[in-house]
Design goal:
globular; alpha+beta; 16 helices; 29% helix; Dna Ligase, domain 1; 5-oxoprolinase; ACX-like_C; Hydantoinase_A; Rossmann fold; 5-oxoprolinase (ATP-hydrolyzing) activity; nine-stranded mixed beta sheet
Length: 680
């Protein structure tokens, strides 16, 4: 049985094939013009003719949003609400609360997602109880739709006031759009985001319409290309919580997959943590452009009900909570106004890449610093398949316009890049109120094992764990997840005996919608009910509270109230049992188990010690001294092996650096566990 997954990043595309318990990996440069070409090139390398599944994650949609390389999409909304996208939620990020100059990165004054001339309004009004207050003016609607047609829009988002309670006006508008503009993507807010808050619902609808344009053509080319290669299995897309969905389901609501790549790494960490007996994890994924940090608590990723791609750029979908830091292996090293060294957020990307790649890059990066320090071996890059240009890295650092010495430039660049990543780790730890001393730091991504061990003295974790194949670990995460179908519905209602029939009806409706969606698989699916609720008077809700199965009666309502107070106490540290509780959103998930990647046990060494493959000479270190150590090959290491730093362990798609004062021990599944030598 063969399982294949692919993670399309901004720099590289990672492909993993698991066949009979053996993991094969490869990495190809991401084709920035047509990422499907890069995916299919990787498919050619591993072969997909006999694959049972092809699981896919991509940052293509995310990168399009962040760079504003977006299709032209129109928005139709209720008269008087034309500027809802520009107004937003009026919530500032913490770092900008006291900054009078701060502005959102999108809006009418700064790269709007939908320019004002493409935002059209129609006379209509639905009341909050779902009754019609003002009927839809179809003649006015046709006039506005024709304006969008003359502007050559590629898709239309429809988001009307209170449509989450009754979508009849949105449905009629969608029919009118198709009559006037033909077969173009049309997204209705009540279908893609049936939640009460207006701005998040409309923001999600607009982003979903854009993703339909971006991914619609892409998914078609990918399906055709795989078919030409003999693939007859199931093509699935990972969503923002790394849950899998068939390509047809995912493309019906493509906003679900906009942040799928980073989420897969968290799921892979949770899966691997269960295998090695670690339930509390801080996951650090270091790529070429950024570092993504997330938390696994008691074996489960922390999941949010919405995702904020930028301040106020909201998508209402389930998502792993991930914080991104603008520092990675390809982060550009520049000089500030005072001659000081700065790292990020710019990146060399895949083309031209770091200067040492020899592809025309002239600006130094964190990877160039690692080459000059001796961490990366120019002769042993990518398992010896490529060589690095040491002289080009030297020239790149020499070109910096700063009075600092060459040694100080390299030292500062490496140290500042590490501090940027450490700050991001500490931020998410504080935000979630956890004690890092009780957590293991799981390090992956091509640049993670090279960089993160050097900051273990800044982040006081219990230990660091580097799993097998860290350079493609996110792609493995797509083979560690299940297929999940989900429907949700907002219904603001007090949790008391008067709500029995309404809650029973909404759960029954949602379950039927999910059963219709998954068809024959419903017999093997596990159905999970959850709800979001808040205490009376609260402006925010507590999400993902388990709800009882079966019919809802008075006893089940009492059980839901008790569970709310228990979960609230667990997350907030307080309990107010005398306060009435109001439900906000109800949710049904159907989980279909999928085959998962297995990690084979590594033999235990019975005699001798691991033998180095070469000497290691480190320079430009923080203390200014040179140090010597050994280089090892990961394939030569066995269960129980111990390596004292400084040392470097090579593998085909990653390099692990063990700093002085730390010790690495190999685990039973081939994982590296790095701790302070004093602990040992």
């Amino acid at each position: 049985m063969q399982l294949v997954s692919v993670d399309v990043g901004g720099t590289f595309t990672d492909i993993v094939s698991v066949e009979d318990g053996v993991i094969h990996t490869t990495k190809v440069p991401t084709d920035l013009v047509d990422s499907a070409r890069g995916v299919l090139k990787g498919a050619d390398e591993v072969g997909v003719r006999d694959a049972l599944v092809f699981n896919h994650a991509s940052t293509a949609g995310l990168n399009a949003l962040l760079t504003r390389n977006l299709p032209k999409v129109g928005l139709i909304t209720t008269i008087g609400q034309r500027d809802i996208l520009d107004i937003g939620s009026n919530i500032r990020p913490h770092e900008a609360i006291a900054d009078p100059r701060w502005r959102r990165s999108f809006g009418d004054a700064n790269r709007p997602l939908v320019p004002r001339y493409l935002r059209r309004t129609v006379p209509e009004r639905m009341k909050a109880d779902g009754s019609v207050f003002l009927p839809l003016d179809e003649d006015a609607a046709r006039r506005e739709i024709r304006v969008l047609g003359r502007c050559n829009v590629e898709g239309v988002a429809i988001g009307l006031l209170n449509a989450w309670t009754n979508g009849v006006h949105e449905q009629r508008l969608a029919e009118l759009v198709r009559e006037e503009l033909g077969d173009i993507p049309v997204v209705m807010s009540h279908a893609v985001s049936p939640v009460a808050p207006e701005y998040p619902r409309i923001s999600t609808t607009v982003i979903d319409a854009m993703m339909k344009v971006i991914y619609g053509d892409y998914s078609g080319r990918l399906q055709n290309g795989l078919s030409e290669r003999g693939f007859t299995g199931s093509l699935n897309f990972g969503d923002c919580a790394a849950m899998l969905a068939p390509v047809e389901t995912a493309m019906d609501r493509p906003s679900r997959v906009v942040f799928s790549g980073p989420a897969a790494g968290t799921t892979a960490s949770a899966h691997f943590g269960r295998l090695i007996g670690r339930g509390n994890l801080i996951c650090v994924d270091v790529g070429g452009t950024s570092t993504d940090v997330s938390i696994v608590l008691d074996g489960q990723p922390i999941i949010n009900t919405s995702l904020e791609l930028e301040p106020d750029m909201v998508v209402t979908t389930l998502s792993n909570e991930i914080a991104s830091v603008g520092a990675g292996g390809g982060s550009l090293i520049t000089v500030g106004p005072g001659g000081e060294i700065q790292v990020g957020p710019g990146s060399a990307g895949a083309d031209p890449g770091p200067a040492c790649y020899g592809r025309g890059g002239v600006q130094p990066t964190m990877t160039d610093a690692a080459v000059l320090m001796g961490i990366l071996s120019p002769e042993n890059f990518l398992g010896g398949k490529a060589t690095l240009d040491y002289a080009a890295a030297v020239r790149a650092f020499e070109s910096l316009d700063t009075p600092l010495s060459f040694e100080q430039r390299v030292q500062d660049a490496f140290r500042i890049g590490l501090h940027n990543i450490a700050e991001g780790i500490v931020d998410i730890v504080i935000r979630n109120g956890v004690d890092p001393r009780e957590f293991s730091l799981v390090i992956f991504g091509a640049g993670g094992p090279m960089l993160i061990p050097s900051l273990l003295d800044m982040v006081k974790v219990r230990e660091a764990v580097i799993p097998p194949h860290p350079g493609l670990f996110s792609a493995i995460g797509l083979l560690s997840s299940d297929m999940v179908f989900m429907e949700s519905q907002s219904l603001m209602i007090p949790l008391d005996e008067s709500a029995v029939y309404a809650i029973d009806a909404v759960f029954e409706k949602l379950e039927q919608k999910v059963r219709d969606e998954i068809g024959s698989n419903s017999s093997v699916a596990k159905f999970v009910r959850t709800f979001d609720a808040r205490m009376a008077g609260q402006a925010f809700e507590t999400a993902f509270i388990d709800a009882p199965d079966g019919d809802i009666g008075t006893r089940q309502i009492e059980e839901m109230v008790a569970k709310f107070h228990a979960v609230y106490e667990q997350r907030a540290g307080n309990k107010f049992e005398s306060m009435p509780v109001e439900a906000v959103t109800f949710r049904v998930q159907a989980v279909v188990e999928m085959p998962k990647a297995e990690f084979g046990a590594v033999p235990r060494r019975t005699e001798g010690t691991p033998q180095p493959i070469g000497d290691l000479e480190l320079k430009y270190l923080r203390d200014g001294e040179k140090r010597t150590g050994n280089r090892f090959e990961r394939d030569d290491l066995l269960d129980g092996d111990v390596i004292h730093g400084p040392a470097v362990v090579h593998e085909r798609l990653s390099t692990t650096f063990v700093p002085a004062g730390f010790v690495l021990q190999v685990g039973s599944l081939g994982e590296f566990v790095i701790e302070l030598e004093a602990k040992k």
